[in-house]
């Protein structure tokens, strides 16, 4: 348990089970744990700023008889405030693993080892930035950022930046008519720093309060496969290893606070699978290794999701499909005992360029996914003392 003077206390633990008596040569493992992340000081006590952000007022458009796809953007006065009411975000992690030595079944399979891992990671009450459009979506179709409670203010009750300048002249629920003398209706947020302020005269948005909130959720699921095979072949030892990773789900909120989720797998920069394949042969003091590195494809853009001709706040994959990415490395080495190991090799033999980033978030290429060094030749001499 960790205690914080500003956000309270949170607990974390891990529980694991190991079982190797199920089948000869088989090992099973399972782990479950909980964790947390406390908010940073800037999210709690950062400086308040004002911005005229561009966003869509879908609620006003609907009142005017316009579909969400016909709604034009506008600049909305937004007060961006830190949130001293933030709590810690919490996580749960589950992993399950089965490993088997196939040589225990058949002598011909001696040296073949396979392991399968499954993982499921959930983050709840995630600390997220609730921007102007997130608040506008919540005000239109619902979400976790705003309550159904409203307050009414006269013309002098709201300052020019949207902050409170006087006491409310009434209160009620969403949908209630403005009382006599009221100029603005303020829809209250789950946190004080998040709200909307609309005109009583025409219902259009005048001000938005944007901030950080414990309103996000993330869930990641996937599995990994590890295969290693080693056996004597001729004068030496032949070795193959294959590491494969498949991420099946990467669910996030359609917009901050939304109950609707988007699976980000296959979106720009998020491939579903990747692998590393190593093939090596060693005889005496000499050896050679060839490595193949693969990264799967994904779509290069996204588009707003619509159902029945109306936008939902979510996204769908769009645009062209990014190419799969393959590179090969090769290394030859010699072990001279106390005189060290000499290695001669080449990284990215075919000099594959990193694939371009059409999303525009990572300069010209996805340096987070692809190696941008190009072909590299090297000679190493390593001595251990």
Mean pLDDT: 91
Number of helical segments with 4 or more residues: 3
Unreliable parts? none
Helical coverage, percent range: under 10%
Radius of gyration of CA atoms, rounded to a whole number: 29 Å
Q: Could you give a short account of the major beta sheet?
A: 18 strands, mixed
Shape: elongated
- Quaternary assembly: single chain
The CA-CA distance between the termini, in Å, is 43 Å
How many beta-strand segments? Answer: 22
Order of helices and strands: EEEEHEHEEEHEEEEEEEEEEEEEE
What percent of residues are in strands? Answer: over 45%
- Tell me the structural class: mainly beta
Fold and architecture overview:
- The longest helix is centred in the middle third of the chain and has 10 residues, at 132-141.
- The chain has a domain at 39-87 and 126-215.
- Strand 13 (205-233) and strand 14 form a beta hairpin.
- The chain is built from three helices and 22 strands.
- The mean pLDDT is 91.
- The protein is mostly beta strands.
- Helix content is 5%, strand content 56%.
- The two termini are 43 Å apart.
- The strands form three sheets. It has an 18-stranded mixed beta sheet that branches. A two-stranded antiparallel sheet has the order 1-2.
- It is elongated, with a radius of gyration of 29 Å.
């Amino acid at each position: 348990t960790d205690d914080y003077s500003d956000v309270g206390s949170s607990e974390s633990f891990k529980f694991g089970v190991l079982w190797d008596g199920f089948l000869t040569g088989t090992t099973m493992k399972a782990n479950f744990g909980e964790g947390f992340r406390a908010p940073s000081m800037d999210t709690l006590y950062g400086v308040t700023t004002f911005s005229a952000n561009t966003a869509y007022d879908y609620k006003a458009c609907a009142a005017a008889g316009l579909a969400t796809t016909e709604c034009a953007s506008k600049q909305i006065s937004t007060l961006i405030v830190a949130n001293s009411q933030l709590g810690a975000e919490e996580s749960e992690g589950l992993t399950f693993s089965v490993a088997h030595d196939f040589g225990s079944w058949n002598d011909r399979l001696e040296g073949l080892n396979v392991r399968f891992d499954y993982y499921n990671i959930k983050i709840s009450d995630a600390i997220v930035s609730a921007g102007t459009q997130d608040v506008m979506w919540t005000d239109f179709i619902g979400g976790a950022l705003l309550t159904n409670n409203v307050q009414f203010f006269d013309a002098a009750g709201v300052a020019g930046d949207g902050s409170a300048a006087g006491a409310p002249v009434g209160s009620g629920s969403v949908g209630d008519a403005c009382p006599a003398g009221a100029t603005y209706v303020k829809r209250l947020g789950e946190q004080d720093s998040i709200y909307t302020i609309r005109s009583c005269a025409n219902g259009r948005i005048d001000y938005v309060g944007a901030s950080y909130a414990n309103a996000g959720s993330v869930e990641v699921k996937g599995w990994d496969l590890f295969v290693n095979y080693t056996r004597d072949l001729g004068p030496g030892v032949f070795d193959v290893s294959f590491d494969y990773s498949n991420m099946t789900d990467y669910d996030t909120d359609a917009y901050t606070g939304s109950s609707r989720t988007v699976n980000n797998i296959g979106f720009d920069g998020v491939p579903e699978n990747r692998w590393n394949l190593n093939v090596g042969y060693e005889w005496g003091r000499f050896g050679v290794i060839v490595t193949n590195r693969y990264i799967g494809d994904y779509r290069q853009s996204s588009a707003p999701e619509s159902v029945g001709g109306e936008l939902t706040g979510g996204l769908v994959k769009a645009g062209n499909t990014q190419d799969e990415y393959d590179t090969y490395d090769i290394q030859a080495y010699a072990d001279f005992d106390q005189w060290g190991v000499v290695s001669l090799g080449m990284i990215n033999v075919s000099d594959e360029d990193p694939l371009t980033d059409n999303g525009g978030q990572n300069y010209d290429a996805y340096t987070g996914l692809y190696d941008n060094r190009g072909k590299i030749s090297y000679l190493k001499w390593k001595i251990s003392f």
